[in-house]
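Re: duplicated header lines in exported structure tokens

Our pipeline writes sequence and tokens for each protein into one text file. With two proteins the header for the second block appears twice in some exports. Here is an export where it did not happen, for reference. First protein block:
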Amino acid sequence: MPLMDIFGRLSSFIVSLAERYREIERKERLKRFGLNGNRITGSVVLRHPENISIGPNTYMNSGQLFAGKNARITIGDWCAIGYNVHIKAESHDIKRPTGPGRVEGDGAKERDIIIGDNVWVGDNVFIREGITIGSGSIIGANSAVVKDVPVGSIVGGNPARPLK
């Protein structure tokens, strides 16, 4: 066997071991915060995971879940959350934007986000602080949710508005 083949196979083996290790570490990190590994299937950034609650049979593919120190994100049962979804219970206050000397939580707006049961959130959606999405609702892809969504609604767009 040529030396290049040996190095190629060894390199592939090392890469696969590293990927397996990262996946095991990700699942362990999620378990530490009570978020079962089968609920988050892709790369999701968690901020203040102790303030995040995800119901059974819900999955999220990728994106960000940013709870605040004093704000929770609650996601119900049987929700389907697409790729690149950003759910942020904490945001900058326009009266005190980022800058030198700013520390985490200083000048931040924090408000709970509640997503009911059986909610479908499409890809590339942004959900801002203080939003409640009623059970059985659908959020269309590429939407920015800046107002509460009533139970059983279909919304979409930027800003999200009722479609049906």
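Second protein block, exported in the same file:
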Amino acid sequence: MLASVPWPLMYRGSREGKLKYPAEGSFEIAYPSSGYLWDRAAAAKVTYRSYGEFIANPAVIGQPATAKVKALEGHFDPLYHGYDLGYRDVDRAARFIAELKRFETDGEMPRLQIVRLPNDHTQGTADGKPTPTAMVADNDLALGQLLEALSQSKFWKESAVFVVEDDAQNGSDHVDAHRSIAFVAGPHVKRGHVDSHMYSTSSLLRTMELILGSE
């Protein structure tokens, strides 16, 4: 007999630790047959690095994190704090900027980088937690700091930054509940242009692939 588990319970995970949150490598059955983005980058010999994505945070902040999938071993920053709404995004941005400065000293940086700034998720109106307005402000400031540092680096002339929102299933607008924000920043982005085409996460990934030279 198969036991059924309500989807909302699976989605939020189990507070008793009986169920894992079904994401970021938690269940092997959910692994994509063609591999994750990291696997495809490795196959194409594209250098890559993760900041907080598919990463297990340490029990004590400041200790090294660990990778959740094999392809990220040796390809992530162990001192970049992953998903944890009690940790400030501006501190995450500071860590990335420190890495950026190291890359400038070394002379090169990974061609594909995924940077997680999760606090736009917010903690709603939970007691003792920052308000949604404060958390979104933290998130916006961190993103601005990251982009400012990158735009002043020697890598900017060859950079393209794609930004999408965490938990885009919440907050419908006047057109459709599936819509979400998406930003592109870089020296080659056309200014003052209105584009009404429909794009998706897959569209963004495909654009990245084309920039990186994938067929």
